[in-house]
């Protein structure tokens, strides 16, 4: 259970799946850089690193794949918000997006099934 949130809230479930995704990616050899980076432009669930590449990870959970499931929930608007938040993160770290290799990965959790889509958009 996520600290500070009642067990049944969607935020608590979201944090639970973010932790699962983090553990999964650590097992795949990525290194954690930051969790839940927030700025006025949006939020990035996980910032990871593989080699010299920064990986911005969006974790999406849906109880089932009705209505398209977790993958379908990452709309063009959501992708744009993530890109803007990633640029804000890079700037906050003194990094330049033209010199820092980056990618956006998606962890989609439908029920208990996890899909990892590297370089999702």
UniProtKB/TrEMBL annotation:
UniProt GO molecular function: nucleic acid binding
Gene3D superfamilies from the UniProt entry: 3.40.1350.10
Coiled-coil blocks: none
Pfam family, one: UPF0102
UniProt xrefs under NCBIfam families: PRK12497.1-3 (NF009150), YraN family protein (TIGR00252)
Family statement drawn from the similarity comment of this UniProt entry: Belongs to the UPF0102 family.
Name recorded for this polypeptide: UPF0102 protein AN401_16300
Species this chain originates from: Zobellella denitrificans
